Amino acid sequence: MTAQEIAEALRATRGFAHKQDISEVVATLGRALPGGPAALAQAVPVGDDCAAIPDGHGGYLLFAIEGLVEDFIVRMPWFAGYCGVMVNVSDIYAMGGRPTAVVDALWSTGSSPGDEVLRGLAEASARYGVPVVGGHSNNRSERPQLAVAILGHARRLLTSFDARPGDLLLMAVDLRGGYEEPFPYWNASTKAPATRLRADLELLPALAEEGLCAAAKDISMAGAVGTALMLLECSGVGARIHIDALPRPPGVPLMRWLASFPSYGFVLSVPPAHAATVLARFAARDIACAVVGEVDASRRVQVRAGGEDALLWDLDAAPFIQAPAAQPATEPVHA
Length: 335
Description:
The structure is a single chain. This protein is an alpha+beta fold. The chain folds into two domains: 1-40 and 158-322, Phosphoribosyl-aminoimidazole Synthetase, Chain A, domain 2, CATH 3.90.650.10; 41-156, CATH 3.30.1330.10. It is built from ten helices and 15 strands. The strands form three sheets. The chain has a seven-stranded mixed sheet with strand order 9-12-6-13-10-14-15, sandwiched between helices. A five-stranded mixed sheet has the order 1-2-5-3-4. Strands 7-8-11 form a three-stranded mixed sheet, with no helix packed on it. Strand 14 and strand 15 (308-314) form a beta hairpin. The protein is globular and about 55 Å long. The chain starts with a helix and ends in a 21-residue tail after the last strand.
């Protein structure tokens, strides 16, 4: 595929479409609040993996929530429950924190598929060492739905708002897994040793606490490139992303991988002086990690493939997940 074909295919993915919905949601909330979208912010603006609330002692409470799409719950209820915990745990570590506990909200038609969802949720709770401490249930719903919220704590934050021109973009992903067919979910979690899962995630708060990295985001359903786009937008910067440099499992078609959600995957923006150290930390735990781009001040995100560049997104022309800029009034405002 050419760079232009890759850019067009990425913009057409389901993951990109779902992430663009965030822009209107934040804008709607902002219109209802005095002070606009900024009123939603705590230690970091809206748009990060978690809300970060200063704890009064130099650290931060982290709070996040994830909802699972209905077709996933219907077809793979056990894995949907498992992912409800897994993706929230990833969000906490992406912010440089450690998880404390989760709660869930589950709607089901009787015990099916609710029982399987809860079994998966309980398995992930045990494997990641994060207790389920409560929630909400409704077994008389016409359609199954699941949302899981998490609480955590960080001593020092990784954020989506601290990528700087001159940084290197790194992608770290656990390739020791396989797809949960037919979905685009790369599962490197359910069969891995629990102690390894936890130790692999501990890399993230260690990088934050040692000052080796300040900006990171976990790879979501927007895929590695879409996740990088979100991080760059929040930081007010741009980048060229080298598609051929992205770590990828052997034999997996490029576009399937670019639209995949890995159970362990992060995009990091790292000062060049620390890049070798960060790469070595992931390599020491057999996690694939590579430099995949360079951050610049352009606010344009380009993809490079086969020696050619193509524009993926011009953030000055259109937002991706952030609220659109307020439009000036065209008529006088009267008291």
